[in-house]
Amino acid sequence: MTSSEPCRAELQAIAAELRASLAESLSPDQQAYAALAKDGELYPWTEQAEAIWARASGSDLWRDHHLAILHHAKAYDLETAGSPDAFQHWTAALRHWSAVRADDAFWARMARHLSERMGTEIAPGVIDGVRARLPRELLEPHRDLIATYQASNPERARSHMHIMTSAPFDPDVIDGIRLQFTEEVLAAVPDAVMTADFEKMIASLCGWQHIDPDNAHLLRSLLYVYRKFNEQVWDADDGLTRVSGNVAAAQQILQALGVSPPDPAGVTGYVDRLKALRPGGLPPGALTAEIARHEVWGGLVSYRLARRRFSWKSDPGSRRECEQGAARAVNHFAMAHQLDSHLALDHYYAALPSIEASIESLWGLCLLAKKDHVGAAQHFRRATTLNPSDAEYYLGLAQALLLPDNVTYAALAEAEQAISRADALGAEVGTPRRLLERRRELNLRR
After folding, report:
1. Which of 249, 243, 248 is nearest to 203 (CA)?
2. Where are the alpha helices (DSSP H) in 150-266?
3. Cα–Cα dist 83/227, whole Å
4. What is the pTM of this model?
5. Confidence of residue 432 (pLDDT cuts 50, 70, 90)
6. 39-75: pLDDT as tens digits
7. CA–CA separation, 221 and 189 (whole Å)
8. Burial of 118 (0-12, 13-18, 19+ CB in 10 A)
9. What are the φ/ψ torsions at residue 134 (nearest 5 degrees)?
């Protein structure tokens, strides 16, 4: 060890003390600016500078501005590297930018600072314009990144969409940017429907809906394309299978969004939840009208499947499945009418009352088969109300009224009216009339 070595160590210790003393005399901004220098170069961010500004108190007038710039620069670098850590810095940057935008004192200081640097007074309108445009200019890069990642990395696109939609800015500004790409996507829908290119369009919309899951415009268009697809294939040999798949897929989407149609009794709160979906701008009732038609298709599928399970020779399990299917179908139609009271005015759905009557009649037959005559009569009554021109429903009602062991005089009178109505409609009523007369005789004997 040479005599110079202790001297060097002492000098190093003194230098460290001087640096520490100097750092204590510097403001957080000065310390952080010094920390941005590394290996002789100045960087837009360093971990040390971030830590210094993060520890700074709220009294540091430029703290949010510095952190906004730092987190944005760090987010861009991490985004370029494909790192998932980029997202926390995008979010932090927007949070700090939001604080900057809300700070009147900051913008007054900025106006003074620029005026001093430029040697001329900055017009208030210039600063106000920058402040007003700031949210859109901060969010538009996310729109561009979403478009870039949409096909190649949909999960990353979805993360950018979440950052954008949850940004602490005016919802109308966020809506405007969302609608820019939404309108571009939806522009292809009319041609796809006209050319019956349903499956390709559904795949495209589902891809975008995965990225922007609670977008009311995408949801409405997706339900619309599913509906037009259903209308075209329903009468095909494999129509039930294809429509069943479409209904199930649409239902999964609604469930994932938390807007799956409830029991009809809860429709008021449900419609309010639909209205809360953004972006805004849909015509009033447009989304609920599409969900109403989705419910119709759910009802049609349930009815066809139920009808397949019923015959007078069916086992009790099959008849129970038929009854459950009819109940589901009735519930679907009830929800559809609650959501769109003018549904039957749509020419394609004008025949709904007669279909609903058929479902009520099927349910009545299921109940007749298990000797629930009171329940069967209720459903046949509904069938005659929905479609008063079908004699079979009156005959079913008469049968339900006359088959119990004990038939009241009121039931006899109602059965006679039902038989007379069926007779007027041209039905063969010899058997039900004979049953009516036997029941009358039995009552007289009692």
Report:
1. 249
2. 154-165, 171-186, 189-194, 198-211, 216-233, 239-256
3. 40
4. 0.85
5. very high
6. 888 899 999 999 999 988 766 788 999 999 999 999 9
7. 8
8. exposed
9. -55, -50
